[in-house]
């Protein structure tokens, strides 16, 4: 600006606290009752005048049964430009499965005289799943130095009713090669085991290709669930790298080849 008197700085007479969708982050992106909680990271911007006045931040949570509670409320110093709060909300597996609604409000008590009062709150819906299934053995990056590998998974809800789970193993990302093997297992919640069999176990141990393992819950009509968990198997190495990725024909995976102890490890 070089002191040009014709240029006037933008000055606002009052503060204007704003929270928008892009300023709110919920992690993890996929939430199931297997988690103990999830993080709410909310950022707030002051688009107006900076004032030295504390402001209240409030987070309300609506449970699947419709009840609403104040999950968090605290004060932060007046925002000069940007500030944030990070709150971990707990998960009760019996109460929280289903649709949850999170509402974050800045200046929740309405004590600050702002330019606009309509941009102080945002609501985000999150869904907490019950029927997630996760690999538990072999562990991530475990070296399996024997044949006849047993793949073990566990459902998020150990008390879930009996369902059909589909396990697939293949050497391609799209699971469309002639090598692909499929097995359906009917099981109630808890531990689910998959023994690939002699020929597949031998192939996993001898070949140098990546073998991908997918677990999916099937709906009663036989349609695959829209989420899955996958592991990769590489010549005695099993690496859990994909968790609950939406099934899409155009999905992409980034694989980096690394060498260690004579093995090739596939990682995300």
How does this model look, in words?
- The chain has 268 residues and is mostly beta strands.
- It has 2 domains: 113 residues, Immunoglobulins (Immunoglobulin-like); 135 residues, Sandwich (Immunoglobulin-like), CATH 2.60.40.
- Helices cover 3% and strands 50% of the residues.
- The chain is built from 1 helix and 20 strands.
- The strands form 5 sheets. A 6-stranded antiparallel sheet has the order 11-18-17-16-13-14, with no helix packed on it. A 5-stranded mixed sheet has the order 3-9-8-5-6, with no helix packed on it.
- Strand 5 and strand 6 form a beta hairpin.
- The two termini are 47 Å apart.
- The C terminus is likely disordered.
Give a brief rundown of this model.
By secondary structure, the chain is mostly beta strands. It has one helix spanning 198-206; strands spanning 17-18, 24-27, 31-32, 37-46, 55-62, 68-76, 82-90, 98-106, 121-129, 133-137, 142-143, 151-155, 163-170, 181-187, 191-194, 210-218, 224-234, 237-246, 256-260, 263-267. The chain is 3% helix and 50% strand.
